[in-house]
Amino acid sequence: MKTLAIEGMQWGDEGKGKVTDFCASHADIVVRSQGGNNAGHSIEHHGVRYALRLLPSGILNPDTVNVIADGVVINPKAMLEELRILSEKGISSYQLLISKRATLLMPYHIEIDKAREEALGDKKIGTTKNGIGPCYEDRASRLSLRVGDLLDIESLQERVESILPLKNLELKAYGGKEFSVEEIMALLLEVREALLPHIIDTTAYLQKALKEGKKILFEGAQGAMLCMTYGTFPFVTSSSPLATAIPNNTGLPLTAVEDVLGIMKAYTTRVGAGPFPTEIDGPLADSIREKGHEFGTVTHRPRRVGWLDLPQLKYVIEISGIKRVALMLLDVLSAVDELKLCTGYFIDGKEIDYMPSTVAELEKVEPQFITMPSWKEDISSIRNYDELPLNCRRYLETIEEKLGVKIAMVSVGPDKEATILREELF
């Protein structure tokens, strides 16, 4: 197998960073294909914790080529700041390629995002206010700036002059900050020199790499239930985190993604507003949140916590074609006396066998649970599956049986070494 896609199976924050870092050491190329700097992931690397947002996880390995592909929206100031922080931590030798077709996220996108959330009040979506949605909107309406525009300053200025009046009209309607052409051009010229050495046609590069048999890891951002089309709309992101979207976001054929590894937590979390059928609260949720460090990498907001939702995971498996999963943060559940697994959805007393496609219907769901005993042993030093406590193995085997997939990897701690590998991932 030469290519592997990583896909979050829940609402993001599943621990994809650790799995990607684990697999990246075996990859020639790591590709980020969608999302923006709203998609943070944390990595423990040689005892140091890194919070990456835009940069692919292979950036910590000087031998790995890191590609920011066509479907990504790039806040250039944020990316340069991320590189600066890495440099301060001693990471300055890396290979980074940025697609000419990727979209530039500008300050007016951020201001529009903030203004809309404020205007929505209690009905707000709960965005990270990083301008991701307005930037993707501009892409769809052909009003965006692309990374390739930086190559021709005269053409770039013409684009800014035609786009900015429309953005200022919207900002004025919200009573927000307006921008001048000079202000935007000054920013673009400032970041241009730093970005130029990295800008190429990544589609052509990846097509060639595929033909040469390079090992390519497609890194996931966010989670399947935040997919713009198949997630809990409108409480979703502005792109598709599904592995099925990778070909369109990279310029590669459908056959380019040979395998999809789903990433799931041993429980469920989500950040922001939206339906959450298995949500729990009170001291138990606080205990899981603290032990699992469940606070947003980008926003630092406390994540909502719930029991593992098997109907939701089945839905994602079906729309993504996932055959193998990595189960993360299993060690966190040792803080729990008794475990619950959601095994079914009921609406008005009748069981349903589908994922509701509207928020109104999903909010009516009554989850059906089974209860299982937990364990009290510290499992963080265990590296062999058979050495896990009996109740721990029963929990995992019940999940495998109900979902019909193999748990290929089990994470028992934040470090890369705190991993039980049941079969080779990549």
Can you walk me through this structure?
- With 426 residues, this protein is an alpha/beta fold.
- 32% of the residues lie in helices and 22% in strands.
- The protein is built from 12 helices and 22 strands.
- The chain has helices at 16-24, 76-88, 107-120, 132-140, 153-174, 181-195, 202-211, 246-250, 282-291, 310-320, 359-362, 390-403; strands at residues 3-8, 29-32, 41-45, 48-52, 65-68, 73-74, 95-99, 103-104, 145-146, 199-200, 216-219, 260-265, 268-270, 279-280, 304-306, 308-309, 324-328, 338-347, 350-352, 366-373, 406-411, 419-421.
- A 10-stranded mixed sheet has the order 10-7-5-2-11-1-12-17-21-22, with helices on both faces. Strands 16, 18, 19 and 20 form a 4-stranded mixed sheet that branches. A 3-stranded mixed sheet has the order 6-8-9.
- Strand 18 and strand 19 form a beta hairpin.
- Helix 3 packs across helix 4, helix 3 runs parallel beside helix 5 and helix 5 packs across helix 6 (181-195).
- The protein is globular, with a radius of gyration of 22 Å.
Short key terms for the protein model shown above:
426 residues, alpha/beta, 10-stranded mixed sheet, 4-stranded mixed sheet, 22% strand, globular
